[in-house]
Amino acid sequence: MTKGVKICLAAIITVFLAAVIITAVMSLRTGRNMAVIEQNGEILYRIDLDKEEDREFTVTSPDGGWNTIRIQGGTICVSEADCPDKTCVRTGLLRNEGSPIVCLPHKLIIRFADENGG
Fold first, then answer.
1. Taking Cα atoms as reference points, which of 28, 25, 26, 30 lies closest to residue 114?
2. In the chain, which end has fewer C-beta atoms inside a 10 angstrom radius, N or C?
3. Considering just the CA atoms, what is the radius of gyration of the chain in Å?
4. pLDDT, tens digit, for every residue of 26-85?
5. Which among 81, 46, 45, 47 is positioned nearest to 61, based on CA atoms?
C-alpha cells in the first residue's frame, strides 16, 4: 500500500468512527430530562426529572390495576405493578427516547417528552 492509500484509508476510518460516535450520542437522551406518563393515550403527568423530588406514587388503571412509579436521583421507573407479566418493572430505568417503559395490561407508557413537551 502506498502512503496516499494509507492516508485515505485512515481518513475514511476516522470519518466512520466519528459518525458512529455522533449517532450514539444523538440516540441518548437530549439535555432535557422531561418524562411523560400517559394512560389510554391521555397524558397524566409531565415531570421534570431534574427538579422532581425523590418519591413514589401509584397510578391506577380503569380496570383496577396499578403501577407504582419511582422517581429517584433524576431517574424514573416502575418499581411495582400488579400486571401478570411485570414487563414494565423488568424494563428498569427509562434510559432513552427510543425505549419507553410500557405496561400493556394497564395501557401505561412512560417516555421522555419530545420537542413540543408532548
1. 30
2. N
3. 20
4. 655 455 689 999 999 999 999 999 999 999 999 999 989 999 999 999 999 999 999 999
5. 81
Neighbours of 91 (CB within 10 A): 17
Beta carbons within 8 Å of 51's beta carbon, 6+ residues apart:
none
Note the residue count of the chain. Answer: 118
Cell of 91: 424494563
**Whole-number Å distance between alpha carbons of 83 and 68:** 11
Note the pTM of the prediction, 2 decimals.
0.71
Closest CA to 37 of 54, 57, 65, 53: 57
Please state the domain extents for the chain.
Answer: 1-30, 34-112
- For residue 52, give the DSSP letter: P
Contacts of 100 (CB under 8 A, 6+ apart): 94, 109, 110, 111, 112
β-strands 42-48, 34-39 pairing = antiparallel
